[in-house]
Amino acid sequence: xxxxxxxxxxxxxxxxxxxxxxxxxxxxxxxxxxxxxxxxxxxxxxxxxxxxxxxxxxxxxxxxxxxxxxxxxxxxxxxxxxxxxxxxxxxxxxxxxxxxxxxxxxxxxxxxxxxxxxxxxxxxxxxxxxxxxxxxxxxxxxxxxxxxxxxxxxxxxxxxxxxxxxxxxxxxxxxxxxxxxxxxxxxxxxxxxxxxxxxxxxxxxxxxxxxxxxxxxxxxxxxxxxxxxxxxxxxxxxxxxxxxxxxxxxxxxxxxxxxxxxxxxxxxxxxx
Length: 272
Hints:
By secondary structure, the chain is mostly helical. The protein has helices at 2-7, 10-28, 31-50, 59-68, 71-88, 90-98, 100-105, 113-119, 125-149, 155-173, 179-207, 210-224, 227-240, 243-264, 266-269.
């Protein structure tokens, strides 16, 4: 679990450094050069990745996989992972559904920071970068603590409580227009999201059979992809109502779902 936690450091560290530099560039030289630099870094990473030597696959198995892979096999594997979770790891399946809260319902809050900065805080784009940067800092601190000292007991309860905290923080974030308090809330939001994702990842690694681990993790990533749909819906709702009202609604929905899990999902709550 400590090793898995350490690997997850890359996500909050990226959110911490990238937006900070991007916000400064956007406010000083404009979005054109900011986005060009970002594109250059993406291309550099792609080139470096292709040069990596990754001999982690049996050549015979690799050839078999390529020769037998098709769309039908892809969906068959996805369905097999779903059946395994639903029939043999029901508690973990419920955790996957719970992950809709921090990954799909409240996570679009980070995408709204530029609009929030301009409309609510009345500041420039650099402040949106600073907010996203301190969010990454909060996530990095939580992961460093877990990496150094390990996880406490009741990981299932930690998933529920961290999801609940993201809902509460989202609700409060929609009600404030004071910069210091907004910074404080977004730091703890990053901490709560990182705690959930890391704890959920450790549960997957420790509870799932080896032959279903990749399929289970893929199903989890499939659920996370619904953030695209939720972001579209949230954007449309903001057009019809207001930014603060939608953020408060995101928080309320997350709190209701989390409290429901806390009361009724004993199989998740009692996970060691």
